């Protein structure tokens, strides 16, 4: 580390400490409430209207599931949050704010808006835009390097030897990704639903059209590989629908990684990206019966909007459209 970079890092750390102190995070309670920082953030996330689960809250706040479980219990005891079981899966409990919780959220929002308005009122437009862009960039940079939330990137391969595979997480284009994504989709859906050349051709064509558009800031793709072939992917296409609506596309995890948490990691990356880009909604299309994927979608705020039978992929299947509102 050079002397210049060392000094710069020190200044960023000092500014970060100052920011945390001025926002009141050193106190036991924040935002003009009698609640802890984690409770305030949980209420804000639950108040998005996306009916999140405790697991989704844990992902969003980067907290252990056990910590969030205790937090939710305390908010329920305070009559700020209620739980309702899913009609399609009794194991899932969705969270929503009670009337009292909604009032607390309004107070939190008012406090925060007043705090920001008071801080920036003497600044010109350019200074305000600089602050906003800087905070967004720094927050995203921290997300991309954090380890406390993503855990260890090494996952266990199922088998007699239970070998450790060191996973490499990639953002953006990498050589071979178009063919690999088309191949994974073709192999999986051929066995699962009997899809053939029509489906594989459409996947390959869609990828070939999408990848050159990654230079646009509202398009992105993430992939996972064992320092070699791509084994899992997910993408956000911010242009194909329009009207400030994103589409989640090409979400697939290879058989040898299923159950290792890779799918949840990818979904979180995608929805965090959508929130950062301020999309009003995120849409996705899937097929009825893919229960593992459906649970991940619902855990991250996606709600079934409609379904119908279609034959665009060859065999007749029941297609489903899910929508997630902006957090």
Low-confidence stretches: 147-165
Assign the CATH architecture of the largest domain.
Answer: 3-Layer(aba) Sandwich
| Major sheet: arrangement of strands | 5-6-7-8-9-11-10
Number of domains: 2
Rounded mean pLDDT is 83
Q: Which sheet architecture does the biggest sheet show?
A: 7 strands, mixed
| Measured distance between first and last alpha carbons | 38 Å
CATH H-level superfamily title of the largest domain? Gcn5-related N-acetyltransferase (GNAT)
User: Share of helix among residues?
Assistant: 40-55%
For the CA atoms, what is the radius of gyration? 22 Å
Annotation field: number of helices: 10
Keywords, separated by commas or semicolons:
Arc Repressor Mutant, subunit A, 327 residues, 22% strand, 2 domains, two-stranded antiparallel sheet, Aminopeptidase, globular, alpha+beta
What's the short story on this structure?
With 327 residues, the chain is α+β, with helices and mostly antiparallel strands. Helix content is 46%, strand content 22%.
Q: Can you offer a commentary on this structure?
A:
The radius of gyration is 22 Å and the shape is globular. The model is unreliable at 147-165 (pLDDT under 50). It contains ten helices and eleven strands. The protein has helices at 3-22, 37-46, 54-61, 65-77, 99-120, 125-145, 177-193, 197-210, 262-276, 291-299, and strands spanning 81-85, 93-97, 154-156, 164-166, 168-171, 220-225, 230-242, 245-253, 281-287, 303-310, 317-325. The two termini are 38 Å apart. The protein is α+β, with helices and mostly antiparallel strands. The protein folds into two domains: 3-145, Arc Repressor Mutant, subunit A (Orthogonal Bundle); 154-325, Gcn5-related N-acetyltransferase (GNAT) (Aminopeptidase). The strands form three sheets. A seven-stranded mixed sheet has the order 5-6-7-8-9-11-10, with helices on both faces. Strands 1-2 form a two-stranded antiparallel ribbon.
């Amino acid at each position: 580390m050079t002397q210049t970079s060392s000094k710069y890092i020190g200044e960023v750390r000092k500014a970060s400490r100052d920011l945390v102190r001025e926002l009141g995070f050193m106190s036991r309670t924040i935002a003009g409430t009698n609640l802890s920082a984690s409770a305030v953030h949980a209420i804000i996330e639950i108040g998005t209207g996306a009916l999140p689960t405790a697991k989704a809250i844990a992902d969003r706040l980067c907290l252990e599931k056990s910590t969030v479980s205790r937090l939710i219990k305390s908010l329920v005891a305070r009559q700020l949050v209620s739980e309702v079981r899913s009609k399609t899966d009794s194991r899932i409990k969705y969270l929503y704010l009670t009337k009292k919780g909604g009032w607390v959220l309004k107070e939190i929002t008012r406090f925060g808006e007043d705090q920001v308005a008071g801080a920036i009122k003497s600044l010109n437009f350019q200074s305000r835009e600089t602050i906003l862009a800087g905070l967004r960039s720094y927050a995203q940079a921290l997300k991309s390097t954090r380890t406390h939330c993503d855990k260890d990137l090494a996952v266990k391969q199922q088998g007699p030897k239970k070998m450790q595979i060191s996973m490499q997480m990639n953002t953006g284009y990498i050589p071979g990704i178009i063919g690999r994504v088309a191949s994974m989709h073709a192999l999986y859906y051929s066995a699962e639903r009997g899809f053939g050349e029509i489906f594989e051709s459409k996947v390959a064509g869609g990828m070939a059209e999408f990848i050159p558009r990654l230079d646009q800031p509202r398009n992105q793709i993430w992939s996972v590989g064992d320092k070699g072939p791509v084994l899992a992917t997910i993408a956000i296409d911010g242009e194909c629908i329009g009207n400030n609506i994103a589409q989640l596309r090409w979400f697939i995890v290879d058989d040898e990684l299923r159950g290792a948490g890779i799918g949840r990691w990818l979904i979180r990356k995608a929805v965090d990206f959508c929130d950062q880009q301020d999309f009003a909604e995120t849409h996705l299309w899937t097929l009825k019966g893919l229960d593992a994927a459906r649970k991940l979608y619902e855990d991250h705020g996606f709600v079934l909007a409609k379904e119908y039978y279609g034959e665009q992929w060859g065999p007749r299947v029941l297609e489903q459209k899910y929508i997630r509102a902006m957090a």
